[in-house]
Every structure is written in C-alpha cells, then in structure tokens.
Write a structure and sequence with these properties.
The structure is a single chain. With 471 residues, the chain is an alpha/beta fold. The chain contains 17 helices and 20 strands. The protein has four domains: 57 residues, MutS, DNA mismatch repair protein, domain I, CATH 3.40.1170; 155 residues, P-loop containing nucleotide triphosphate hydrolases (Rossmann fold, 3-Layer(aba) Sandwich); 157 residues, P-loop containing nucleotide triphosphate hydrolases (Rossmann fold, 3-Layer(aba) Sandwich), CATH 3.40.50.300; 56 residues, no CATH class. The chain is 38% helix and 20% strand. Strand 3 and strand 4 form a beta hairpin.
C-alpha cells in the first residue's frame, strides 16, 4: 500500500515503522534503537479499528499471524441457562470480559463452548501444571482436538494450546500474535507483578477470564478490566446453593489454647507490639512490611520475626485442633474428609496422628497424582493438605471439609469451600472451621463471615452438627 506505514508484531509489542515526526496516539513510544514507534500488543485492536483513522495513519498491518481455525469435533453436554447467559453476556461485551461463577458451576464448559462456537485458535492459561494437563484432557474429550502443551519442558504451539501463567509470561513475546482467543483460568492470578505482562504482549482480540474469586488483597484485581475486560457475568455461591452446586452448611468450632500456650502467645504478642510501637515513634512511616528489610542488619528485628513465626506455630499447630479433628472424624465415620491446614508441619502432624496422606508444597507431581487418584476412588478416607488443593481439584464425592487454619484471607476460604460444592446426587456439604479464640483467627473468621458465601449459609456450632441431617 503506497504511503502506508508497516505495522508488525515484534517481541511482544507493536512496531510502527513511521518517522519520529509522525502524529501517533499517545500510547506509542519512540524506540531510537530501531527507529520506529512501539506500543504494547494489547493495543492492536484499539489502534487498528479506532485510532488509525482519527490520526490519519495509513497502515500496512502485518501484526496478526493467527493459526487457521482448528478442526473441532464437538462432544459437549448441553449448556444450562446460566452458562448460556454467561456466554451471551461475554459476546455482548465484544468477546472480552471476566465470567465470575462459583467452583463446580461449569466454567470449563463455558470456555470450551466459546472455542467451538467461534472456531477460534485459542491459548488456555492455567495457574498450575496439573491444571494445564487437566485442560488438555478436557479439550481432547470435549472438542476432539489434541491441544499443544507449552510448559513443563514441552514446547508444542498448536492451534489450541494450554500453558501456565509462568510459561505464558516467558513465551508470549514469541507467540502473542498466533491466537485469536485467550482464556485465563483462575483469572485472579493474571494481575500478578510479572504475570500481567503476558496479557500486554498478546494481540488476541477475544479474551475470556474465568474465576470464582476475582478479588485480590493487593487491589490489583482492578487491572482485570484492562487486561481481559470487565466482569460481564457474575454469580455468588449463595445464589446457586442447592441448584447448580451442592447445598452446604458451615460449622464453627471455637477452641482455646492451653494455659501455657496462651501465656506464651500473649508474651510474644506484647514483645512484637513494643518493638513496632518503638519503630513507629522513630519513623512514622514504618509498617510491618519493613520488618524483613530491617532483619537483614538488625538482630532485634530478626528476633521479632522469630517471635512472629513462633506465634503462628502456636496457633497453627495447636494440640486442641487435633483433638477436635478426632471428634469430627468420629462424626463422619462413613464419609471422606479433606483437612486444610495453614502450614506443611500441621499437615504432617495430621498425617502422623490419623495415618492419612498429606500433600504439601514439597509433594512432587507423581506423589500428588497417586494420592488424589486413591482418594478419588475411595481407597483412602482422609487427606490433609496445605494450600496445594485450594484450586483446580475436582472431587465431587467429597462433602466434608475441615479448615484448621489459613493465612491468605477471604479468597482462600471461598476456594476451599468450593472444593466441596460440586453436585453429587442430592448430598449436601459441610465445612468445619476450627477457630482459636483470642488470636487473629477470630478476626479472619469475621472477615469471611461478611462474604455472601458465608453470610447466607447455615452456620452451626460443633454441638449442633449432629442435629442437622444433611447427610
């Protein structure tokens, strides 16, 4: 095209070959290294369809290099009305946006149906390798297409490809112009400090985010609207309770530390408060985030961190928690039970006390798969886990969970509840929360209670657990 400026995808950005005197949109930056203008690849759609005419830019656009439409042989179950409504809302939003639905309500089927409906070359991004392979299996079964795998030592970039957030961040500069659709599973991971760059480096005009818990404690969830699109469809756990997910109740189990543990906990707390108050008097801007930095050179700060870790250990590994857990196991002698802990050590304590497997951050893929397969087939009745089962684990038959601790806030709590809520006949779920009184456990429980999932569910005490016939 005579007089046109070449526009191409170049290492995760758009490169516009125009002179430095050219009138270009403000989001372009002059790159003197190559004598051209650059902007993030995510701006491609806006640039081509909206701003080029306004700035009288004639473009010779070579940026897109999408795969041909994949040959799909669909074998998907019929969508429920709520799933159809979610897809309609996403399409109405210009095929961009985030769908918020509880665990177990068929978000994966929504994504597979979108890929099939639009015959779009698609990249699916998941937070964990296990989830990546789970998506590969679901794509093979539902779309009749063998998806490529990018990650875990494999580099298969095919018309439908699955990857992890970390691998997407590494490779998007090479593959960011190959896919018309990008699907972000557990989309709340995307706004991470580095992970979000993969969305900026991608041309895909169609973007779908899936999550049950979009919020983040650091507030970066507001970036989702820019990186994927706004929330276009939202369901709360309480709204679908007993319909598309299992009915459930939450049982609060208050416990107290023993006298010696409580005395040590209080003494440690007083020492930490005195240190922090002294630092604030010296420097009004001091907060707990500065502690790690100071601990590198300040022996007193190192001692305070040691005291803080000891406080956590007292609460997380309380002997009373194990006694209560024994009672809960006795209440459900014929049920499988999953136990969520706040530390690897507590998961191992539970494992040793009750002779059940424990999965921790140190468990390798093969161990995890063996344990979860045995649990899924009913060969083991109990399982302890620290964080590793918060996301991406499907066990529809499990309807009893016990939370012995957690440090990651409301999202972690809702994710753990979601592990129990997949429909399995008409069986209801029960989540036991063991809360240590006169410790930060109480404040965390109050924050959880403000969410819809907790506020609108029956809440019982352990003494009432046998009185409500949910099983």
């Amino acid at each position: 095209m005579a007089g046109a400026h070449a526009l191409r995808f170049d290492r995760g950005s758009l490169r516009l070959d125009a002179p430095p005197t050219a009138r270009v949109p403000s989001y372009f930056v002059w790159d003197s290294r190559v004598g051209a203008w650059r902007t993030a690849a995510i701006n491609h759609l806006r640039l081509v369809r909206e701003d080029a005419a306004a700035y009288r830019l004639r473009l010779n656009d070579h940026a897109e290099h999408f795969f041909d439409a994949p040959r799909i042989r669909t074998s998907l179950p019929p969508l429920r009305p709520d799933q159809q409504a979610a897809i309609a809302a996403w399409e109405k939003g210009g095929c961009r946006g985030v769908v918020v639905k509880p665990t177990g309500t068929g978000k994966t089927e929504i994504a597979l149906s979108v890929i099939a409906r639009h015959a779009a070359p698609a990249l699916v991004v998941a937070p964990l390798r296990d989830l990546m392979y789970q998506w590969q299996r679901r794509i093979r079964k539902g779309l009749g297409f063998d998806a490529g795998v990018l990650g875990d030592g494999r580099h298969e970039v095919w018309p439908i490809t699955v990857t992890t957030y970390d691998s997407a961040w590494i490779h998007m500069k090479e593959i960011g112009n190959r896919f018309r659709l990008i699907v972000y599973d557990e989309a709340h991971h995307l706004p991470g400090p580095s992970q979000h760059e993969s969305a900026l480096d991608c041309l895909a005009p169609m973007r779908l985010g899936l999550t049950a818990t979009p919020w983040r404690s650091d507030g970066r969830d507001r970036m989702l609207a820019e990186l994927i699109g706004p929330v276009v469809y939202q369901e709360d756990v309480a709204d679908v309770r007993g319909r598309t997910i299992a009915d459930y109740a939450i049982v609060r189990v208050p416990i107290y530390l023993g006298e010696a543990d409580q005395a040590e906990f209080d003494e440690l707390s007083r020492g930490i408060r005195r240190y922090v108050a002294a630092r604030i008097r010296e420097d009004g801007g001091f907060d707990w985030k500065d502690m790690a930095r100071r601990s590198r050179t300040d022996p007193e700060a190192r001692d305070i961190l040691r005291r803080w870790r000891r406080k956590l250990a007292i609460v997380n590994r309380s002997a009373e928690k194990l006694r209560v857990l024994e009672d809960i196991f006795r209440l459900h002698p014929d049920e499988q039970v999953v136990v969520f802990t706040a530390s690897n050590r507590m998961a191992l304590d539970v494992s040793a006390r009750f002779l059940i497997p424990a999965l921790t951050s140190h468990s390798d893929k093969h161990e995890r798969n063996r344990v979860l397969d045995a649990f899924a087939t009913g060969r083991i009745r109990g399982l302890a886990a620290c964080e590793v089962l918060n996301e991406g684990w499907d066990a529809p038959a499990v309807k009893v969970g016990v939370v012995l601790g957690g440090e990651k806030g409301v999202r972690e709590a809702v994710q753990r509840l979601g592990r129990l809520l997949r429909k399995s006949d008409d069986r209801a779920a029960r989540l036991y929360e063991v809360i240590v009184q006169e410790t930060p456990d109480v404040a965390r429980a109050r924050r959880r209670a403000k969410t819809d999932a907790y506020r609108r569910a029956p809440r019982l005490h352990l003494g009432q657990a046998n009185q409500l016939d949910l099983f």
